[in-house]
Amino acid sequence: MSTTTRAPITLDPSASLHAESIGHGKRYGRLQGRRIMVVGAGQRKTVDEEPPIGNGRAASLLFAREGAAIACVDIVQDAADNTCEQIIAEGGKAFTDIADVSDPDAIAPCLERCAKELGGLDGLFLNVGISHGLQLPDMTVESWDKNFGVNVRSHMLFAQAALKTMDPGGAIILTSSIASQRANGYNPAYEASKAAQIALGRAIARAGEERGIRCNVIAPGYIDSPMGRDASRRRSDRAVTVPFGRQGTGWEVGYAAVFLMSNESSYVNAHTLFVDGGHLSGIHRVNKT
Ligand SMILES: NC(=O)c1ccc[n+]([C@@H]2O[C@H](COP(=O)([O-])OP(=O)(O)OC[C@H]3O[C@@H](n4cnc5c(N)ncnc54)[C@H](O)[C@@H]3O)[C@@H](O)[C@H]2O)c1
Question: Ligand 1 centre from 269 Cα, in Å?
Answer without folding.
Answer: 23
